[in-house]
């Protein structure tokens, strides 16, 4: 990057000129990209393609990029100057000492749990009825599903340092396990849930066994391929999976055997409530909340056990691990299998909530989103992952509700279509501001005195 | 393979060890013994193949030829070249340190010492199941492991820094911690790759005391690679000299020092020059990483 060369110059008049020149360069590159992509809009017209010039848009984009880069350089320059004058050990950009970061993140975790526990009630009160709160509860379910997936993948990527680009495969295995077991054998959700986790773990081990001797990029590529293979099998093995059409009319979840129906035997009648279709949704909400919290609890506990410490040691230095008698293959395999199991459980929850699944739901984009949540959150940090999941999944939804965006971009504006763009922007912003994720400090698993956080600068991110 | 050698008083017997990398013979037909309770030094000029010998002993390389027999005090034997990498430590109980320190930098000093006690702790945690349930037996095992770590922290003078990340420690302390971490695996043979490299004279003296303590107070024999002749001559009971992968001398420090071939290959210069050379080779050389 051109800017990298200039960072060394002392701040002053010439530095400012450098910054402006640098921003100008960025705008120029942006212009170069815009000319073929944006400058003309093509519409099918009566006589072939109609070209509509959009030069104002191009100019606007280039100007925006110029300004953003200018601001970024200026702010970075100020940050560097501030750091140079105060060389204390602080946590990257928040300017927090690692210990303050621990306090803040524990607080954030409890705030998250508190909010999650009360969300259906708060939403019902705020919007004046359970039915009206449906949107919020559905959104909560969606976010919690990703929180659980993020926490599951965090075991593999954040703790053990194994880059897994095919996590969605285990999500799919869990979803199809439930769908097939429930539709063919009529097994109930509560029996299928652990079975789905077990199957996914089994697949995790099957994949892990040959693959885990690979490292870094190679591991990432093979897991990526594995995710695609699972999806292609789901599409092409029509007899079992129903192919691209998927599996529909998957049995709904029951309240431990009591169905959520309006009849005599239904949940509402049994508990003396008036029937409301929202009972099922609220119930599902608490199911996924419980599952996510179990994932979190198990992870937090395992971190303090020898296996968790071995995972982190593996991320730090695999060769040293082997010299200390740690069987790295089985250690990696347990991380992989456990992560897969949580993914599988989340998958079977997905199936029971949707009532319909198809291979489309399990494409690479899902893997990328889950991985992005883990990376943005700060690898290994539970709270960071929760916050990132809210931002990544809830963010586009929030945008949908912002009326002025529609005013700017027109009535048909759907932020979901810009999701990838937003991810890209979020990633770039994170690389610039917090390259180690939102919460980059590591909390030791054990301490003689007070637990003191370890600055992210020491912590390795693993090499595969 | 020939008959099992008579291992009376020998903890490690290296026989006809050969390691070739393509056309390069890094170690050629090397045989020597490490006697129980001794500090044995492996010395030789740069690139002589010392680290390669260590990598063969500790299972990081599979030797091209040769046999490495490790004997425990109870008489059991282990053929190291046939064991998987991690089993060399876990079952044969050989521990090592690395020429370029390999601590878990992002973990605390205490955590480093606990990771080294992985195998017994894993057993106590019932493969994590008992541990997850918070069983008392696991908690007692963990407390014992922490006690043991504290003992070593006291010994290497790092008690006050137990909760600091290992990457924050000064160089000399990192070297000591790596030795303590290896000792926490309860080895019968401890292999140290240039433990005194980069240490100042005071730290070097402390290291000698630590190594003597390990030899005398523990059931652990020591095999060390060292460039610093003052360390070698002062603490080792037995010295093996390598040059171009071949053994050129083997005996007590006094004998080796007087050996004309050693003088030619390694010590054939004035004392100050030795010190200079030592400083160069001990610090400035980069090394190939052992590969799995
Ligand atoms: N993995 C490898 N692949 C190829 N050649 C290797 C490998 N490991 C070591 N060698 C070669 O073997 C020879 C011996 O290397 P080794 O590292 O064992 O020397 P050393 O005695 O430890 O040297 P130093 O005193 O510098 O640490 C060198 O020529 C080295 O280049
Ligand atoms: Mg060496």
From TrEMBL, chain A:
Residues covered by the High-affinity branched-chain amino acid transport system permease LivHM N-terminal domain: 20-117
Topology term for the membrane: Multi-pass membrane protein
Chief location bin: membrane
Localization terms from the record: Cell membrane
Keywords attached to this entry: Cell membrane, Membrane, Transmembrane, Transmembrane helix
Transmembrane feature ranges: 23-42, 54-72, 107-127, 133-153, 160-181, 187-206, 218-238, 283-302, 333-356, 368-395
Cited CDD domains: TM_PBP1_LivM_like (cd06581)
Protein name per UniProt: High-affinity branched-chain amino acid transport system permease LivHM N-terminal domain-containing protein
Organism: Methylobacterium trifolii
Organism ancestry: Bacteria, Pseudomonadati, Pseudomonadota, Alphaproteobacteria, Hyphomicrobiales
UniProtKB/TrEMBL annotation, chain B:
Keyword ATP-binding tagged: yes
Keywords (A to Z) from UniProt: Amino-acid transport, ATP-binding, Nucleotide-binding, Transport
Keyword match Nucleotide-binding: yes
Domain of life, per lineage: Bacteria
InterPro entries: AAA+_ATPase, ABC_AA/LPS_Transport, ABC_transporter-like_ATP-bd, BCA_ABC_TP_C, P-loop_NTPase
GO molecular function, one term: ATP binding
Short name of one Pfam family: ABC_tran
Domain (ABC transporter) ranges: 12-269
Region forming the signal peptide: none
CDD domains (alphabetical): ABC_Mj1267_LivG_branched
Family designation: Belongs to the ABC transporter superfamily.
Protein name as it appears in the record: Arginine transport ATP-binding protein ArtM
Native organism: Methylobacterium trifolii
Recorded name of the encoding gene: artM_3
């Amino acid at each position: 990057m051109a800017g990298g060369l200039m960072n060394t110059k002392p701040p002053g008049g010439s530095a400012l000129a450098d910054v402006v020149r640098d921003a100008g360069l960025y705008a120029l590159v942006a212009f170069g990209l815009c000319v073929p992509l944006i400058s003309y809009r093509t519409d099918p017209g009566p006589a072939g393609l109609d070209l509509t010039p959009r030069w104002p848009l191009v100019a606007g984009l280039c100007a925006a990029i110029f300004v953003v880069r200018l601001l970024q350089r200026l702010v970075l320059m100020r940050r560097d100057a501030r750091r140079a004058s105060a060389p204390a050990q602080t946590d990257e950009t928040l300017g927090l000492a690692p210990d303050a970061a621990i306090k803040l993140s524990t607080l954030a975790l409890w705030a998250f749990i508190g909010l999650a526990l009360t969300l259906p009630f708060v939403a019902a009160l705020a919007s004046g009825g359970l039915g009206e709160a449906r949107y919020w509860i559905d959104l909560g379910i969606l976010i919690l599903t990703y929180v659980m997936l993020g926490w599951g993948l965090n075991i593999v990527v954040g703790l053990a340092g194994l880059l897994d680009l095919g996590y969605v495969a285990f999500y799919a295995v869990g979803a199809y396990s439930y769908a097939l077991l429930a539709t063919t054998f009529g097994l109930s959700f509560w029996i299928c849930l652990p079975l789905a986790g077990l199957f996914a773990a089994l697949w995790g081990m099957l994949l892990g066994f040959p693959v885990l001797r690979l490292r870094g990029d190679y591991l990432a590529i093979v897991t990526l391929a594995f995710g695609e293979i699972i999806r292609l099998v789901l599409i092409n093995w029509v007899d079992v999976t129903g192919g691209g059409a998927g599996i529909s009319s998957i049995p709904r979840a029951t309240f431990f055997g009591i169905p959520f129906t309006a009849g005599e035997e239904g949940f509402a009648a049994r508990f003396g409530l008036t029937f409301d279709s929202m009972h099922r949704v609220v119930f599902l909400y608490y199911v996924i909340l419980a599952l996510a919290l179990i994932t979190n609890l198990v992870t937090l506990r395992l971190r303090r056990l020898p296996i968790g410490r071995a995972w982190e040691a593996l991320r730090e230095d695999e060769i040293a691990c082997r010299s200390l008698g740690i069987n790295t293959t089985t250690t990696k395999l347990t991380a992989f299998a456990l992560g897969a199991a949580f993914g599988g459980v989340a998958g079977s929850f997905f199936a029971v909530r949707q009532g319909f699944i198809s291979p489309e739901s399990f494409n690479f984009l899902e893997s990328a989103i889950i991985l992005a949540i883990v990376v943005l959150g700060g690898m290994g940090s539970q709270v960071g992952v929760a916050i990132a999941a809210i931002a990544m999944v809830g963010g586009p939804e929030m945008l949908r509700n912002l009326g002025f965006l529609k005013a700017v971009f027109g009535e048909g504006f759907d932020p979901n279509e810009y999701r990838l763009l937003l991810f890209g922007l979020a990633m770039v912003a994170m690389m610039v501001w917090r390259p180690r994720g939102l919460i980059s400090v590591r909390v030791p698993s054990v301490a003689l005195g007070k637990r003191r956080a370890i600055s992210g600068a020491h912590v390795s991110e693993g090499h595969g | 393979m020939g008959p099992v050698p008579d291992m009376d008083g020998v903890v490690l017997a290296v026989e006809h060890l050969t390691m070739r990398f393509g056309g390069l013979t890094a170690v050629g037909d090397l045989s020597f013994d490490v006697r129980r309770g001794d500090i044995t030094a492996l010395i030789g000029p740069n690139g002589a193949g010392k680290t390669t010998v260590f990598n063969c002993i500790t299972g990081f390389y599979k030797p091209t030829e040769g046999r490495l027999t490790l004997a425990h005090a109870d008489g059991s034997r282990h053929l190291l070249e046939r064991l998987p990498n991690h089993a060399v430590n876990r079952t044969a109980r050989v521990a090592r340190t690395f020429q370029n320190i390999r601590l878990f930098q992002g973990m605390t000093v205490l955590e480093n010492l606990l990771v080294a006690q992985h195998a017994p702790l894993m057993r106590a945690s019932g493969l994590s199941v008992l541990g997850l349930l918070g069983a008392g037996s696991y908690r007692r095992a963990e407390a014992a492991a922490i006690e043991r770590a504290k003992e070593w922290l006291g010994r290497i003078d790092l008690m006050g820094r137990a909760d600091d990340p290992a990457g924050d420690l000064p160089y000399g302390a990192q070297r000591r911690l790596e030795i303590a971490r290896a000792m926490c695996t309860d080895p019968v043979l401890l292999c140290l790759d240039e433990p005194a490299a980069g240490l100042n004279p005071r730290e070097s003296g402390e290291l000698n005391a630590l190594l003597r303590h390990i030899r005398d107070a523990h059931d652990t024999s020591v095999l060390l690679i060292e460039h610093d002749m003052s360390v070698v001559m002062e603490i080792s009971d037995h010295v093996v000299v390598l040059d171009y992968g071949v053994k050129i001398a083997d005996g007590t420090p006094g004998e080796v020092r007087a050996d004309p071939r050693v003088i030619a290959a390694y010590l054939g210069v004035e004392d100050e020059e030795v010190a200079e050379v030592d400083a160069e080779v001990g610090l400035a050389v980069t090394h190939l990483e052992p590969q799995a």
